[in-house]
Write a structure and sequence with these properties.
- This protein is of the alpha+beta class.
- The chain is built from 11 helices and 11 strands.
- The chain has a 5-stranded antiparallel beta sheet. It has a 4-stranded antiparallel beta sheet with strand order 9-10-8-11.
- Helix 1 crosses helix 3, helix 4 crosses helix 6 and helix 10 packs across helix 11.
- It is elongated.
- This is DNA-binding transcriptional regulator.
């Protein structure tokens, strides 16, 4: 009898963990994961409901189970690595750029560390003690945590999103997008999404987004932008901030140059098997010239004229420096 109770309790914990890991589950999928019948799944779902977990069920061919929102936060099941990750994340968020989240993070961290086993508390303290972030050069814009969670939910649920967006020049407009990923870069947050009206990928600063409710219909997933969301943001944000943009013909295969170029500072296009074009830029001509020299490859600068003149001056200076 006791063995059956322990087996049922362990299965309920496993079922709860599965429901927390994904938004929707079919009865057949849960039965397969738990190695039980669908009838047993239905009984276990009822047991969870009796314990206060709001498990919603839908009928039909697309029916299944979903862990809904209740009146109170139910206990979460975390494995060791997840518990450490949450604790480290809360400590980091305590000094982050999300409005009002510092004090909340400290309170949540206190609750979590109170119940952490000593072995996990040691791992968390070790990471915190021997990790030191470099302070930002200047404070980033504050982000409303409710906006972050709304955008993350729309990405997860693959639901169209409409929001008011304030451009860098202060103008506002309504955008309709299929959200893909949130990207954190330094102290700024960006949303990478497919712009429905412009039929192309776009990057949006989260601190300039005001979501409209409700969200729109669900959409099928698209192939992500080349290199992934983080690389797409890095390319776009860096290029937008460059004072000087350059087009450089590099006498090397594109794959060789790509290995030496961070996606945040350049885009490589193949011309033929032995030559490619590098589109790059920087805030100063000196930085751009040094960066091109560090490629350690033969190249030709075709634009801008200022960079061509600057490299000629550097060539003459280096020539004078040797007897």
């Amino acid at each position: 009898m006791l063995g059956n109770m322990l087996e049922t309790s362990a299965r309920l914990l496993r079922l709860l963990s599965l429901l927390q890991a994904r938004r929707d589950w079919s009865g057949a999928d849960l039965a397969e994961r738990l190695n039980v019948s669908e009838r047993t799944v239905r009984r276990d779902v009822e047991r969870l409901r009796d314990l206060g977990y709001p498990v919603n069920a839908t009928r039909g061919t697309d029916g299944g189970y979903r862990l809904g929102a209740g009146t109170a936060m139910p206990p979460l099941l975390l494995d060791d690595d997840e518990a450490v990750a949450v604790a480290v994340g809360l400590r980091t968020a305590a000094g982050g750029s999300v409005t009002g989240i510092e004090e909340t993070s400290v309170r949540a961290l206190a609750k979590l560390e109170q119940v952490l086993p000593s072995r996990l508390r040691y791992r968390v303290n070790t990471l915190q003690t021997y990790t030191e972030p470099v302070p930002a050069d200047r404070p980033g814009p504050a982000v409303d945590p409710s906006v972050l969670t709304a955008l993350a939910a729309a990405c997860r649920d693959q639901e169209r999103l409409r929001f008011d967006y304030r451009a860098h020049d202060g103008t506002t407009g309504v955008r309709t997008v299929e959200p893909h990923r949130l990207v954190s870069w330094g102290r700024r947050w960006y949303l990478v999404a497919w712009d429905v009206d412009r039929q192309d990928w776009r990057t949006f600063r989260v601190d300039r987004v005001e979501p409209r409710v409700p969200t729109g219909p669900r959409f099928p997933p698209r192939d992500p932008p080349e290199g992934g969301a983080a690389a797409y943001v890095a390319r776009g944000v860096s290029a937008a901030a460059w004072r000087y943009r350059s087009r450089v013909v590099v006498h090397a295969p594109a794959e060789v140059v790509t290995e030496r170029v961070n996606p945040a500072v350049g885009v490589v296009e193949a011309l033929d098997e032995h030559t490619c074009v590098l589109h790059t830029g920087a805030d100063s001509l000196n930085t751009l010239a040094v960066y091109l020299g560090m490629l350690d490859l033969d190249f030709e600068v075709t634009e801008p004229p200022e960079l061509i003149d600057h490299i000629r001056d550097l060539t003459a200076r280096y020539a004078r420096s040797t007897p």
